[in-house]
Amino acid sequence: MIKKKTWKYLAFIFEQTLPWLASFRRGNYGIGLLVMVIEGANVFVLLRAHLLGKLEAVAKSTEGVVGLLFLLFLTVALRLLARWGGWGRKGTQKGGEGTSHLRMALRRVGRNPKGIVGLLIPLCFIYLAFLAPFISSDPLTMHFMDRLKPPSSAHLFGTDKYGRGIFSRIIHGGRISLGIGASATFLNILLGAVLGLLAGYYRGAVDAVIMRILEVANSIPFLVIAILVMAVFGSSIPMLVLVLSVFALHPARIVRSQVLELRENDYVQAARALGAGGRQIIFSHLLPNLLATLLIIGSIRVGKNILSLAGLSFLGLGVTPPTPSWGAMLQEGRSLILRAPWIGIFPGIAIFLTVLSFNLLGDALRDALDPKLRVGVGE
Amino acid sequence: MASYIVRRLLQSLLVVFLVSLVIFGILKLAPGNAAQIMAGIGAKPEDIANLQRRLGLDRPIPIQYWCFIRSFFTGELKSMAFQDTITGVIFRRMLASVELGTVAILLAVLVSLPAGIIAAVKRDTVWDYVVTLASLVGISVPVFWIALMLMIVFGSNLGWLPISGRGETVFNLSILTADGWAHILIPATSIALIQLAMNARLTRSCLLEVLSEDYVNTARAKGVREFWVVLRHAFRNALIPIVTNIGMMARMLFAGAILTETVTAWPGVGRLVYQAIIRRDEPLLFGLSILIAIFFQLTYLAVDLAYAYINPRIVYD
Question: What CATH code would you report for B94-278?
Fold first, then answer.
């Protein structure tokens, strides 16, 4: 006869070792799947590296250590997130006291199939990017014996004209795409929020100046100014981030129109009547109300930025070769389209999956946070 | 109305002026100049200086700007790479871009509006899921990759369509010949697919918003056929954002297809812009950006005027 307390301990151990099984048991299939895939992949990757005899060598290199640390971080972070969002527990549909708006929204995202896929795919790419040294060959070493090999078990996605593995280059290219895409989006949203808040809250001359800036930006096609700046100033990663974040000013427009609406609310008027200054109203009344919108636009913009980055790289204005990037690989595929179509096919699928998942995540966030926000905002 | 249009046009003039300043500013801020690039690597300093004098690059920057603007309006602005006035260069390319854009936009609008309407009316059915999923896919693919895939499938594997160029033209138009049509299909479809997806998504969500309004139910209660309820009562009221989006598409007529035109070697304005930048053809790029800005401003004005036509409650004065 096992004591009740022992059962409790057993349940605790079970939940900690196999959290995804626990999620399944409670009917949270989405998050269960998410955690299962990531943790299953961990075991697979490490085991495979060990069997190939690579594990020890790679684990000693800096890249390998960073990869392993990331693995640890990801495992802990996923569990914390799942726990905080209540994805692993039962009966979390009801709000209850002390449950913040953001937390509830996160739960809804975690229950939405769109949200799950939207989180899963970027996570996989980030994961592959960090663990690249364990799973793939070096993306820069050329093997002239293996030029233009079609996909096979040795070269999962085939090889390019220098005999470099497409699979390996896609994984490494993911670092560039996601890294630049995410950091450009962060700056872009920050800039949009600042401009939009200034224009919408202070109105008058500030608004007039900012609106003219937005109109000018709206009259030059984004790609034209991006190509121009990249071509004349030379391409580098900071430059790419700058171009992607500064010239796309659409978020500012959306923020401005929201602020114009928000500032007429009674609580803002009341705060003003009580003598609150502009800074206080912006930070404690307007900004919290804008967070949902910013999150939604941000998610969609990551995808948009990855597309723009691919476009620029495709034109030869992105990251300088031989650093792998998805857009540049497509450019290579364009010239070898008849002889080696796989060079052009797989990087495109990588771009497509990444962008699709950020769009899905954006949709899920919109469903959870602000269903009234129009589809197409920020696209 | 007339005074509104005049005021808008004056505002546009300011915007176009600012655009020209921005483009000119970037060109002048950039390291190196056109003379160095034209002379090539390893040219003698005195050759470069000569070339600079000939191109007027040694004069003060405000004067250079004034020369650009003046010769732009008199039509004397000369492209450096193409040895012709920019009006000549652009005019030769413009028809190609406009016809590609027109075919693509027509295709996009004609497919996306019915698709979006069906998805909204038959909400949560298979129709809806198919349209929603397809349009999500559509907004997530890189346009040039779609073109590349179409080229692989229809150009190389099936061998049905040629994979680059414009084909046979009559009066400088491809759509007048069968061969031209074969050439336009791949670039037009790939542009259209993206635009189509965006517009179908927008149509669906706007129509859904409107379909729950009271006046739609009122119309049904009066015994109006469902078809006309959707089309006349609901769709017309959902049109404003859709027209805005179609306006955004129409901007592309002129120079919106840089990537597609590059992939499919379509000799349009989009590719011209790219070439002008890469060859550092400052006058050409300057002229092009002003023309693009003017075109954009006119599109925005047209969209705003369309609002008044769709919704009589919108009055400009």
Answer: 1.10.3720.10
